[in-house]
Amino acid sequence: MKHEFAFEVQFGFNARMIGSNRGDVLLVGSLPFDTPDEAISAAAEHLGDHLPAIGDGEVGLRKLWIGFLPMTIYSKHPALDTLRAPEGGVPKPHHSEVYEAAFLFGIKPGQELRFETTNYGPIAVESYEVFKRLREQGVVPEGMRFQVTFPGTGSAISYFFREKDWPAAHAAYHDAIRRDIELILEHVPASELQFQFDLAQEFVDMASGDAKGIADWPDATLEEKIQRHAATLPDMTSAVPDEARLGFHWCYGTWGGWPMKDMADLGLCVRMTREAIDRVKRRVDYVHMPALKHPGPEFFAPLTELDGEDVDVYLGIVHHTDGVDGFAERMEMARRYRERFGIGSVCGYGRVDPAELPHILAVHRDCAAALRG
Length: 373
Prior knowledge:
Blueprint: E1 25-26, H1 36-47, E2 53-54, H2 68-72, E3 80-84, E4 104-107, H3 120-136, E5 145-151, H4 153-156, H5 166-187, E6 193-199, H6 201-206, H7 222-230, H8 233-237, E7 245-250, H9 267-279, E8 286-290, E9 312-316, H10 323-335, E10 342-344, H11 357-372
Parallel strand pairs: 1-10, 2-5, 5-6, 6-7, 7-8, 8-9, 9-10
Antiparallel strand pairs: 3-4
Helix pairs in contact: 1-3, 1-11, 3-5, 10-11
């Protein structure tokens, strides 16, 4: 066991994150609102006593997730050439061919690439002020952490850059994350923060096995892909302080429908969890793994490989379209292989109809009751 619990409570979560039920439900990130106030208030109202942290809903252009980066940074950067852009300059969430719809950039000859910020840092500072105000008003429970989410390096950089520019662009991105975290820490105590890194294009790539998963990326075996993506984890997370919580969302993508690639089981998610635990220089507090609505009988079997590891596992077994009954079936399947876990959906809700959200969050709450029961 790499890390050590201070003590253990129900569901196997440690005292760093919860008391009683706090921490049994994870909202991965995005919510379908226009302002942080709406997103934080909705999460707190429906699930505040269950969540380890609340983010700002990834509102505005961040609803396009990684599409936010080329639109606000890369396409305006003086050291970059735009080699390809989607029609109208805006990524299309439901484009039939997501790779043809993506931007592609190259570093201009003789230029040294530097990003002053990823923009996630300054936005987090602004959103934390909303979070703090709502906490002072009693909307957000005391002891709740504020979640800040960054895309993984493969999703934020490799997907948008030529392969030959990856080393320089990766380094620039990691450096910008470090500066953004330092900025956030100037305004927010580390003990009030939860940092999450979302890897989606990486999993689209790995879930393709030895075949090409992303058109612009090089041919590689599955093991080569795993090693390439796992190698980015230490630099990506190096600035996260020990007092903050650190987690990973292993994402199979919703661009054009979920999942973007078939999932045979949780094998890749478990493998990357072990890579993160082994490679990241500080404690990995939690991981989130999505699950199929109708998983096969051995879908959750790889979870046994995490026996003895001090990491909180959230399983994305809440599918709001089949309610508590469908959840209960998946929960019992998972319990054959792991006794304690938290729950969540497969991904965020940034692109669903806002009118659906009260029902969606109510299902989460009912599922949490079933988990405890």
